[in-house]
Amino acid sequence: MNQNWHGTLIRHMLLLVTGCLVIGLITGYYGWSLAAGLGLYLAWTLKQLLRLHEWLRLHQPDEAPPDGYGLWGEVFDSIYHLQRRDQRVRGRLQAVIDRVQESTAALKDAVIMLDSDGNLEWWNRAAETLLGLKTPQDSGQPVTNLVRHPRFKEYFEQESYAEPLEIPSPTNDRVRIQLYLTRYGNNEHLMLVRDVTRIHQLEQMRKDFIANVSHELRTPLTVICGYLETLLDNVEEVNPRWSRALQQMQQQGGRMQTLLNDLLLLAKLEATDYPSDNQPVHIGTLLQSIKSDAQQLSGSKNQKITLEADTSILLKGSEAELRSAFSNLVFNAVKYTPAEGNIRIRWWGDDQGAHLSVQDSGIGIDSKHLPRLTERFYRVDSSRNSNTGGTGLGLAIVKHVLLRHRARMEISSVPGHGSTFTCHFAPAQVAQARVISAAE
Ligand code: ADP
């Protein structure tokens, strides 16, 4: 095997030439015998080449190469060994692929591979149970044709997949699934799907519990507050010393009522994905009325509240929910801005959709609080909260309303200088006043 074939070949050629010359010496025809010798050698080489070609073309996977002499035998063997090595590597690779496929098939979570156009390429067994994919019919089908939930299409078409999507399973309404999408390679997608029915049920129980407790507490609280009011009206006749205590009770009762109302509103917002009414809302008019309420709330603080609104831009959605969200932002600005401060409300539209911003010259918020500000009951400063009588639920309500209207909120703030809360609504949510009047 490790023979020096270079030297051997030269030796063979020298032997051939010497043999031919000897024959030439005997016969007297040097030229002819040399030509005949080389011709024979060429014919033999061509024959070996043809045998090799034949074997390469027709051999069975494990068939040994034909026997060959000298260098040709070595060439046959080398090719044969190369092929065997290649087969072994392929076998090992196939074993790895089989193991990966077996392990993913055993997974409870679904794994789906999609090509750059969103067509199904490969999926495991769990994908058949969770998404109802059928092997092999669905191969090459667009995933949006098979998972037909409207929120899935929206989710799939967006640019980044920071958050997972939770929807009911297409095979069974009672099963909740959570989908994670990741881009890889040449804009291909990897989709992971988990069954989160149990977590969803627990979450639902928590929501129902809060909603039920709030609902049950509302009636007794209304009765208590009603009697407190009557008692306060006649406090002089009953016992004048109770006046202060009764006033504080009434004030705290009022706070509890606002808290219950906010909790109930949040529970209602969480119950569905989108508002049931999706009518174009005149945001300009809505903001005008919120502004005059804010002016009243401001009262002796005498803040300067300005409104600049593009009245031609309407928003599809629920007027009641939008009123609640926008008034929370404006009333917060009034609450957290000192007397004589400025509050600027703006409503405008551009290529990216419609935008509402509420800017104040108030106390501002430290940047470390900004990421958590929309959490329920999150307070920047609890003492500040009790002064303003807030519930700590206002911004959580705003966040939910915006989510339901395909919008997001941006908060920028400088402590001591003021804050700006901006809501960005997607173009799909915007309606033009002209179009509406034409339709009417
Ligand atoms: P609250 O009912 O306490 O106002 P929110 O959820 O509306 O609850 O607001 C959460 C917290 O965010 C508030 O306690 C307050 O500290 C802060 N905050 C909200 N809006 C403003 C604002 N415009 N300026 C300064 N701080 C604000």
Describe this protein's structure.
Member of the two-component regulatory system PhoR/PhoB involved in the phosphate regulon genes expression. PhoR may function as a membrane-associated protein kinase that phosphorylates PhoB in response to environmental signals. This is Phosphate regulon sensor protein PhoR. Keywords: ATP-binding, Cell membrane, Kinase, Membrane, Nucleotide-binding, Phosphate transport, Phosphoprotein, Transferase, Transmembrane, Transmembrane helix, Transport, Two-component regulatory system. By secondary structure, this protein is α+β, with helices and mostly antiparallel strands. It folds into four domains: 98 residues; 88 residues, PAS domain (Beta-Lactamase, 2-Layer Sandwich); 73 residues, Helix Hairpins, CATH 1.10.287.130; 161 residues, Histidine kinase-like ATPase, C-terminal domain (Heat Shock Protein 90, 2-Layer Sandwich). 54% of the residues lie in helices and 18% in strands. The strands form three sheets. The protein has a five-stranded antiparallel sheet with strand order 2-1-5-4-3, with helices on both faces. It has a five-stranded mixed sheet with strand order 7-9-10-12-11, covered by helices on one side. Strand 11 and strand 12 form a beta hairpin. Helix 1 packs antiparallel against helix 2, helix 10 packs parallel to helix 11 and helix 11 packs antiparallel against helix 13. The longest helix has 37 residues. The radius of gyration is 41 Å and the shape is elongated. The structure holds adenosine-5'-diphosphate (ADP). The site of adenosine-5'-diphosphate has 23 residues, from helix 11, helix 12 and helix 13.
